[in-house]
Amino acid sequence: MAAAAAAAAVGGSQSPQAELPAPGLALDKAATAAHLKAALSRPDNRAGAEELQALLERVLSAERPLAAAADGEEAAAAGGGGGAGAAEEEALEWCKCLLAGGGGYDEFCAAVRAYDPAALCGLVWTANFVAYRCRTCGISPCMSLCAECFHQGDHTGHDFNMFRSQAGGACDCGDSNVMRESGFCKRHQIKSSSNIPCVPKDLLMMSEFVLPRFIFCLIQYLREGYNEPAADVPSEKDLNKVLQLLEPQISFLEDLTKMGGAMRSVLTQVLTNQQNYKDLTSGLGENACAKKSHEKYLIALKSSGLTYPEDKLVYGIQEPSAGTSTLAVQGFAGATGTLGQLDSSDEEDQDGSQGLGKRKRVKLSSNTKDQSIMDVLKHKSFLEELLFWTIKYEFPQKMVTFLLNMLPDQEYKVAFTKTFVQHYAFIMKTLKKSHESDTMSNRIVHISVQLFSNEELARQVTEECQLLDIMVTVLLYMMESCLIKSELQDEENSLHVVVNCGEALLKNNTYWPLVSDFINILSHQSVAKRFLEDHGLLVTWMNFVSFFQGMNLNKRELNEHVEFESQTYYAAFAAELEACAQPMWGLLSHCKVRETQEYTRNVVRYCLEALQDWFDAINFVDEPAPNQVTFHLPLHRYYAMFLSKAVKCQELDLDSVLPDQEMLMKLMIHPLQIQASLAEIHSNMWVRNGLQIKGQAMTYVQSHFCNSMIDPDIYLLQVCASRLDPDYFISSVFERFKVVDLLTMASQHQNTVLDAEHERSMLEGALTFLVILLSLRLHLGMSDDEILRAEMVAQLCMNDRTHSSLLDLIPENPNPKSGIIPGSYSFESVLSAVADFKAPVFEPGGSMQQGMYTPKAEVWDQEFDPVMVILRTVYRRDVQSAMDRYTAFLKQSGKFPGNPWPPYKKRTPLHPSYKGLMRLLHCKTLHIVLFTLLYKILMDHQNLSEHVLCMVLYLIELGLENSAEEESDEEASVCGPERCHDSWFPGSNLVSNMRHFINYVRVRVPETAPEVKRDSPASTSSDSLGSLQSSRRPKVLQRENSGTAQVFSLVAERRKKFQEIINRSSSEANQVVRPKTSNKWSAPGSAPQLTTAILEIKESILSLLIKLHHKLSGKQNSYYPPWLDDIEILIQPEIPKYSHGDGITAVERILLKAALQSRMNKRIIEEICRKVTPPVPPKKVTAAEKKTLDKEERRQKARERQQKLLAEFASRQKSFMETAMDVDSPENDIPMEITAAEPQISEAVYDCVICGQSGPSSEDRPTGLVVLLQASSVLGQCRDNIEPKKLPITEEEQIYPWDTCAAVHDVRLSLLQRYFKDSSCLLAVSIGWEGGVYVQTCGHTLHIDCHKSYMESLRNDQVLQGFSVDKGEFTCPLCRQFANSVLPCYPGSNVENNLWQRPSNKNIQDLIKEVEELQGRPGAFPSETNLSKEMESVMKDIKNTTQKKYRDYSKTPGSPDNDFLFMYSVARTNLELELIHRGGNLCSGGASTAGKRSCLNQLFHVLALHMRLYSIDSEYNPWRKLTQLVEEVNSQLGNEEQQPEVPILYHDVTSLLLIQILMMPQPLRKDHFTCIVKVLFTLLYTQALVALSVKCSEEDRSAWKHTGALKKNTCDAEKSHEVLLSFVISELSKGKLYHEEGTQECAMVSPIAWSPESMEKYLQDFCLPFLRITSLLQHHLFGEDLPSCQEEEEFSVLSSCLGLLPTFYQTEHPFISASCLDWPVPAFDIISQWCFEINGFTERHAEQGKALLIQESRWKLPHLLQLPENYNTIFQYYHRKTCSVCTKVPKDPAVCLVCGTFVCLKGLCCKQQSYCECVLHSQNCGAGTGIFLLINASVIIIIRGHRFCLWGSVYLDAHGEEDRDLRRGKPLYICKERYKVLEQQWISHTFDHINKRWGPHYNGL
């Protein structure tokens, strides 16, 4: 039957117009499928195949829903949407059935999975997925693992971290190309293929037939859905619509890939089979639909600027309409001919400004190969066209995932990689046009990183598909679209083009996917080698790099401030780092050995060519244009880095790769310009360019950029300096820094290029630069480990650092494969060698420290290197910070007391190739400069600073350290005339020049200068470094006056040298040196009027140094050569005495070194010291100096006075803060005078912290305490178990809140309300366990009217405060503690001393009567005074502090009983909380911090005042029931209809105590208080007995009943617990309380046998909580001290303190609680009366009656949940957990640390009435206080009312650091101390005081 039906169906389907089969037949899909499968299994299966084709044709091309949507028939689609969707589903159903071949689809899936040889995981994830990376196991730096594979592998002790995927990725487990096999997880440790059986042929046979049609169908959908977007309208909307409709199809394919290897290989066959593709898509059939779709495909190709090379016979000639333009045909024939036209097909190039790029492009693209890379695409398989559409649709996530899911199939991986490369240019074009380039970039990288991280694959594609050519060309093309003309140097004639950093392409980093792929493939050695060997590629690449050379040019603003600060520099720095530097580091990592010399030669060669082109293009001769700087010189940096590598690793001879002198001169100009500009920027000369220029200067030296920017620049300058003429180099430096004019002996000068105020800092800059240039050895011979150590020391000297910030600050080689990986072995070992770890600590203020590393003492002593610090500081203040820390170290270790100078540090030896660098120190130009500066400093000329002197001495010392050894003293002194090229110094060696005396100098000075007066002797020669002319005298004259200095000009000298070199290197020198156009460096004529004067100097460098020593020390003849006393010094000169110190030490050190170097110097120093030299500066200077000294002294004294005052103030503040915060300190610092109870003072005096007056609080001007009212549910969290609950970390663990104090009390109240009268119930318990109001104070008082005006001023204050003034919040004016109300102080004495000191002799009966009378008096509200108003308003505040649900427990809303209950519960809450703050008992006595913040006394007055308004009807006053026997007993039971009152034994005794006391008129008398306590204790004791009787078993009860009955008639029977217990049992036995014992009873019975001791203990424990609260109350009301005691004697101590114990009580025999009883009426009568009430109730409700009797009163301290040791356990469980409310996985999950509830932070999904879930939960769980752990950030957030703050983290990593937002992803462990602190702040309610950074949350958390 089935077969027939199938045949009918198939038969029907062969007629072209066949409809869908009738529904009846359609249902039988399975049968059809089975039939077809059978037909296809036959050897001759042609018929079957045709049948199947026809069926598929019909099913899959059910009228396309897309066509409707695409043609814009929105209405039709909307109406018939259901139909369309149904057809889609129908088609999918058919496919599933056919694949399964008649069986069930699920069984089919399972069958296929069985054949999966899963050696690879290949799980694909999208952005934001949490994955792991293990550097120990990874071969490729991009390796990543899914959480499951990571946890199943063994990575203990590895360097791994967890990360959130940015772009998506795939799991590499099982792929040995990317990771080491040791790291594979258990599932993917290589399975041998032999275990997997071979796939049976018929299982997947149907798939092979069905899938090609299915995929073709998908492609047709994609073709039809695509409409070329109109130029102006982004078409994402349409594309997304198409994609949504295709969702089910793509998901179906994705599911197929997940069936494992067998199905993947079928899919691979289908996707890559070219024949299939040709048959189905050629569009040649008679099917109109297919034809149309093919045309759409061609149009899409064409509009993408691509040609479709096809056989000319089919297209082009016969039917141009098919979509290929003739252009494309010609284009294919001869691509070069049509370049001009081709360009116009790329839409982005049509703006005319592109002319320049066009010109360039023709040059680039003239070879056919490149052109085809850019413009030709030919699709030969489904895979290729699928990728084409994936790109066209901008990489939809589903498609990407499908394509990646296939990757575990090796054959597919290769095919797909080749396809991807083939489409590379097209990807770039699409990316450039995309509106969502960020998303698209991520998706591209998601794919490419999977393909290119695999070295084998990358190599194969490079060889077979020209991957490198394609990448470089595509990058070049991409950048060409945003080129502009460079304005560097010669603006008009420049031919150089640079990228425009303002373009979106650079601003949005659109290029990064392509660049990151390029960096990725260059990390493979085999690929990089091909790149370095291919000259054509290198040329193209240098071309690319030159686009960035000189980009983002800055021009100094000289007049106006710039209007608009451009931020393009971000883009520029990012581009240079990513597009130029990182590929460079990638290439460098493959040039590590000698064999790779050739590569370096290639790069250097093409780099120099590119540089030469660049110099030509910008028309550069010898002077840089003034006031311009670019920080971007990537070509220079490539050149420098390859040179450095060549010398360091490849043993190349440096000179063989250096260019000629002229080129070196050009090369040094721009890097030097940058160094000078840095100094200018720091001197504020660029301030009109805005902040961004400072930003550039900082970025240039910042840790991520420095080793790709400033380091290569300095190195290049070092290379140039070592090869150029030193005099030329030095003079260039001073000229660039614009301080040439300053370097004159004259005391006044005019600087033509620099304002006077900038001179000093520019001079400092120039000298500092020279010091760095001469002392830095980063590329000149240091090993990698030495470099790492130097970097680390520099960073640690600036500040203590955390481990992660050190990793971040130490510039590592940016290429991940470079070897120094952060966290690598060498990093850790160097760190432990130079630094000590300081564990994380807390300060009492609550600010939390991270674990820090601090330099070891010996590092400060020997390794502190100021030069390195200066080089690496981004902010100038860091240099100061390092010096301050150094100073502190020296003081502390006693090495040097004063202000030290930066120490001089010995350098690592220079590499031989760079020896020439030291010639700078031995050139006359530098010596002249040093001499001049020393002289100027000695003469106190303007604009010189200690820093200048420091640098000058540093340079001299460097010169002495690096002097040329071979020059002996004798040879130096006999110096022939030909050596003397001028008359300043005889030779060029510093050692000999130091002793050379200079007698006269001719200077050019302004006519106003003091030097002008003198007439010049005839024979003098002249000097001025400032003048700009060079005059040379005949040689004869020179020899005559060898002691006088010749005219010498820096600039002229430099010009001359330059000319010489150029003459040497080029014959047509005349053309090269063009006349100077810039008028800045004009001839001397145009300068201000200068006249020549002659100065008598008669000094040498040595004599200047000695005089300087005198000047610095302020004493004459202070220098005495040390070797005269101790000849040893000369033999063994390394003396620690000189290593640290100030300028004096430095001078001494230099003189010693000079003496060591030559005997002549030693002799001359001794000579100079023998002549007693008067100080050089004239006397008046000394007077002025003296004046300044006096001034200094005065200043110093003033400063000391100020320090003293400040210190005093600070200590006051500190003592104040201690009392305010929880810092234990002795009691007596309390600022509140409230507790100072001296008997003679009758009235308390208060200080107002606002107006400062002190006085008593009065009715009309009341004083108040600054208080913070907050609702609290801390009490409700107490449990009867010491072990805190654990945070659940598996599904099984749950937290049930039934055993918390709040829950128990709730149950009790509702039980009472069920059976008893409501008003009576509300007096029987306390509320406030949840949402109780806690009142705390900082102890400061203020007048209430002062407070009001203070609030007014706060209201008008516009400053952003962390609190809301409208809600009454403020900070205490004195201690800034947070507060929100003022509690009025009751006028009157401090504490009622006088009353309680008089002992009262009244007996208890009288007192009971008095109490009753006093309570009966109605409390009239005091007259309307200010005080009463304030009392009322504070009561209102207290009520409003908590939510209504925590105040209203009455059945009748708004009943007065409610208010009554609420008020005494406030008192209860505050007492209970104070008890908890004291640790849950009173053993520690009075000295507790909690007491200081308490304001119970004042609070009691306010509450009592309000309670007295509600008089309790004397009938119902519980006091009567406690103290009188009631006669008519039966009347109660009579009125059945009305609910009875609560039996007195069910009352909560502590509540009764508060009611009784607050009902009394205040102030209360001590004896009344004691009376109330005694009476209540009898009730409490009876309750204890009853509870005990209920708890024990029937046998125990009968035994006790008898033993007690025997003693009943003894004298103190009323004080024996045995007697009383037996009486209670006998009384209660009359009712049914003990009867209904069945199953429930067993639960109650305690298994232990009760001994008298255990009974006594039970009774004491039952009564203790009441005694504790009562003692606290007494302490606050009467100011009595609390005694301290051992835990075991707490009961007896407290009861005697409360007056329950008779004074004559003997303490010998064991203490018995019953002895405290003092019965007001005969015990047995009153007990039987109480028991009678109970019996009446248990008649009907025995169970409940029993439950109400057993009160659990032994609550333990509250705790937060216990957290697991390792954070990962929390994270793994919660970050994927679904929310119970919205059943989604929250974006920001959080968990409450009080109750363990899982909530969505900020989740709109769980919002209720505009409150987000966390805020809502904080109100329900903590009455407004919530403590949440944010799962994804590992931090804790506190919500307090309407504010919140980030508290910090309680999980730290191995280095004691937080990892907020899990950015580093290192394993985190609980820090118990921090968690303790958090819990402490929660319990003590001090979040508001300790945490400073609060902000409003607007209910959005």
What share of the residues does DSSP label as strand, in percent? Answer: 5-15%
Roughly how many Å is the radius of gyration? 47 Å
Largest sheet data? 6 strands, antiparallel
**Structural class of the helices, strands and pairings?**
alpha+beta
Average pLDDT, to the nearest integer? 78
Which stretches are poorly predicted, pLDDT < 50 over at least 5 residues? Answer: 1-27, 62-84, 310-369, 816-823, 966-981, 1013-1044, 1066-1087, 1174-1185, 1219-1241, 1390-1397, 1529-1536, 1638-1646
Categorize the overall geometry. flat
Number of strands: 28
Number of helices: 78
Q: What strand line-up does the widest sheet have?
A: 22-21-23-24-25-28
Distance between the termini: 65 Å
